[in-house]
């Protein structure tokens, strides 16, 4: 609970507590705080037991820490029964994207002798790829579109 408090901070808190509550009342305040913490822990444990009983025997190994999404995902990824490690290692997104990018940029338009319209389509594709390569060029202004 107090893993991130250093020794200097702990000494400062003790001195501050002595100054605020005084040396006579400090033991009583510490007892009251500890009693409250114990009651909260007991209430929490009884609530967990009630939930486990209500869920039934198939959830007797249920851990409430698994409700945290990060813990649940980490636990499932460490579980190799599903073969997720093989899938994760076999899927290289950067390689796939590089292949697609290379295919798009190095593809030369094939002239089609079947019809003139497909040649126009190829020209438009080439023009749009050329436009993407030159970010300084602006598209032509269309007054009717604005």
Describe this protein's structure.
The chain is mainly alpha-helical and 146 residues long. The chain has 3 domains: 1-57; 61-90, no CATH class; 93-109 and 120-132, no CATH class. It contains 5 helices and no strands. It has helices at 7-55, 69-78, 84-90, 93-106, 116-133. It starts with 6 loop residues before the first helix and ends in a 13-residue tail after the last helix. The model is unreliable at 108-125 (pLDDT under 50). Pfam families: TatA_B_E. It comes from Streptomyces spinoverrucosus. This is Sec-independent protein translocase protein TatB. Residues 102-146 are annotated as: Disordered. Residues 123-146 have a biased composition (Basic and acidic residues).
Main attributes?
146 residues; mainly alpha; 3 domains; 5 helices; elongated
- pLDDT averaged residue by residue: 75
The assigned structural class equals mainly alpha
Query: Runs with pLDDT <50, length 5+?
Result: 108-125
Number of strands: 0
Sheet having the most strands: none
How many domain modules? 3
Helix content class: 55-70%
Quaternary state, please? single chain
Task: Give the DSSP E fraction (strand runs of 2 or more residues).
Answer: under 5%
**Cα-to-Cα separation, first versus last residue:** 61 Å
Number of helices: 5
Order of helices and strands: HHHHH
Rounded to an integer in angstroms, the radius of gyration calculated over CA atoms is 34 Å
Shape: elongated
């Amino acid at each position: 609970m107090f893993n991130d408090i250093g020794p200097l901070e702990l000494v400062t808190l003790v001195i501050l507590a002595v100054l605020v509550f005084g040396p006579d009342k400090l033991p009583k305040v510490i007892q009251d705080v500890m009693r409250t913490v114990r009651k909260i822990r007991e209430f929490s444990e009884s609530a967990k037991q009630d939930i486990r009983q209500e869920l039934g025997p198939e959830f007797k190994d249920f851990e409430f820490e698994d409700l945290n999404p990060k813990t649940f995902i980490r636990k499932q990824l460490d579980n190799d029964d599903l073969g997720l490690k093989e899938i994760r290692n076999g899927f290289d997104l950067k390689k796939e994207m590089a292949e697609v990018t290379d295919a798009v940029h190095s593809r030369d338009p094939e002239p089609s002798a079947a019809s003139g319209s497909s040649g126009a389509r190829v020209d438009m594709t080439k023009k749009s790829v050329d436009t993407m390569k030159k970010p300084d060029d602006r598209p032509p202004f269309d007054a009717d579109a604005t």
